[in-house]
Specification:
Two copies of one chain form a homodimer. With 313 residues, chain A is an alpha/beta fold. Chain A has 13 helices and 14 strands. Chain A folds into two domains: 213 residues, Rossmann fold, CATH 3.40.50.10680; 33 residues. Chain A has a seven-stranded parallel beta sheet, sandwiched between helices. In chain A, a hairpin with a 2-residue loop joins strand 11 and strand 12. In chain A, helix 1 runs parallel beside helix 2, helix 4 packs antiparallel against helix 5 and helix 7 runs parallel beside helix 9. The longest helix of chain A has 15 residues. At the A-B interface, helix 3, helix 4 and helix 5 of A face helix 3, helix 4 and helix 5 of B.
Amino acid sequence: MIAVLAGGVGAARFLAGLVEVVAPSSVVAVVNTGDDTRLHGLHISPDLDTVTYTLAGEHNAELGWGLAGETWTVMAALERLGAPTWFRLGDRDLATHLYRTGRLAEGAPLSTVTAEIARAFGVEVRLLPMSDDPVRTRLELADGPEVEFQEYFVRLRHAVAVRSVRFAGAEEARPAPGVLEALEEADAVVIAPSNPVVSIGPILALEPVSAVLARRRACVVAISPIVAGAALKGPAARLLAELTGDSSAEAVARRYSAVAGAFVLDERDAALAGRVGALGLRPVVAETVMGAPGVAAGLARAALDAVGVATSR
Amino acid sequence: MIAVLAGGVGAARFLAGLVEVVAPSSVVAVVNTGDDTRLHGLHISPDLDTVTYTLAGEHNAELGWGLAGETWTVMAALERLGAPTWFRLGDRDLATHLYRTGRLAEGAPLSTVTAEIARAFGVEVRLLPMSDDPVRTRLELADGPEVEFQEYFVRLRHAVAVRSVRFAGAEEARPAPGVLEALEEADAVVIAPSNPVVSIGPILALEPVSAVLARRRACVVAISPIVAGAALKGPAARLLAELTGDSSAEAVARRYSAVAGAFVLDERDAALAGRVGALGLRPVVAETVMGAPGVAAGLARAALDAVGVATSR
């Protein structure tokens, strides 16, 4: 069994490659919920949805979020009502949020609802929210106020400087049922190429999760989302630079050095392998830019190989 | 100023006629919220929406509820997720519920949100929910369980016998801001041709509302929703028969005798005028079936005339 710590798009692409080389039913994804938000009274879990839609093959590749073939009737009607519409919700996507919100209101935990949605989408990978309890990523902007993640990411288009990041609720939140068991029993744990600060950060902020990974460090491999000092998508490089002064893949490796024993670097960063090794992580160089077909599967194979797990296909 | 106690479709049609004979801005509608429900985490106010959509000229005349030109993309996606879909929600209609739920979650009272939605739809009539506090109509079925209104009305299609009706929360609920003032100051108060048990019943269950109407009884005129022992739509006749043994217009007049001084009967029930008079209500006979153009306006004129209010046009 393979466990994967996952954020949004990068993790979803990696998981889609992983299930080409191992059986989908042997994969457990532990997904960030620090980005979760409430909008129009709805509980929205962007990373869970991105992973679900991608593994179902129904993600909107042009937009980079939401569902393929989406329509926008409800959004247009909300605009007319004067509701805030900076967070775009497609009609089909909305059904997911309505279903989730309704089930949560009935008392079902997020992990149960997540499994129900995954099943309806025909997703065989076992998807677990990192926690059934609320953890909310909050960013203190350099010029003052603290904002919630979606405000930073979507409304402000992450084009503002950040002074600090915290994960409200992380201290009290318990890992969702199945999370610690999966991390304990996995043959390999992969930290997907997601934003180390705001996607993987909230998961590692759960102390029992960090503790089990630190103990099983030899089985944990992290994949750099940074290639040649830049992120393919999103604010990973900018946030790393603002918070640590370094936006290289080495900065990512440093962040993971307590919980991962191996680290996959992009070929363009091969020169950093020695410095990663010096941090105590076994460096592995691979193609990490999952644009062309086959790259994600190859990356999954390389990552598993780095912790001694052979792939079946 | 004219105040109207309103349920759903019948009241909405009456109001559309009323604004042909008096200025819309001089009309205050006090609308039943006993039918309000939560579905998929959304706060749904069916009677407020029916009145809003109808006065905006955007109601779906074929369906008898919802918006004209509606689409059903979200519903289809919800069906796929296995969500209960017996309560149909169109895409545009959903935006109203999302807006309302979002604003209520922000702490806005229902009366404020109702005014915002009415303004966005260009409705000039002042729409007031009967209360900002929750009142929920619950029906005890003859064969056992107690169900909430929408379960009875939509899911069971009101094709089941009812033993009793109650309005949970009515004792603690306060009339919404503006309701008592409107009823105090109105030149006439019209009880619209809505279901007397489950549409007008919840409004009258607010003790301060009944009290002011009883005091101002001479200015209050009720319109029978029953024509020749049957309701044009919905379970009014059946409920009256089950709860009182009588489903005639006279049974409606009896229900309103403490709060109304005049009563509009349909022409087909002209023979009951004497019995209505004997109950202490001044009977007025008029065409009440608001199918053909002009009937609703004529009915509004007749109702206002019954309490001595001349119409301006």
